[in-house]
Amino acid sequence: MKRFFKFRYGEKGFTLIELLVVVAILGVLAAVAVPNIGRFMAKGKEEAGVTELHNVQTAMMAMMADEGITAIGQLISTNASQDMQTFPPDIVGPPHRRHTTIVWSGR
Known about the structure:
Number of strands: 0
Pfam families: N_methyl (PF07963)
Largest sheet: none
Number of helices: 2
InterPro entries: N_methyl_site (IPR012902), Pilin-like (IPR045584)
Protein name: Type II secretion system protein GspG C-terminal domain-containing protein
Oligomer: single chain
Structural class: mainly alpha
Strand content: under 5%
C-alpha cells in the first residue's frame, strides 16, 4: 500500500502556491461568468415575451381574416368596454427595452 502513494524518481507534486493560483483563477472566472449568465437568461426571457406577443398578434390577425372581422371591437359583446377598436400592427415592433411594460390604450 505504501508503494501506491510514492512518487516515481524525479516526480514532484504541486506546491501550495500553484494550487492557490489555480483556485484564484477559477474564482475570477466564476465571478465574471455568473453575472453574464444572469444577463443572458434575462435577455432570453425578454425575447420570449416579444415572440409570444408576435404569436398572439399573428393568431389574432389570421382569425380576423378567416372570419372577415375588421376590428377587435366586433368580437366584444355590447356590454363590454369598446376600448380596443383595432389590433395594433406594430405591437411587437421596436424599440423594446428591458424593464419596460408595453401598454396599449387602443386609441
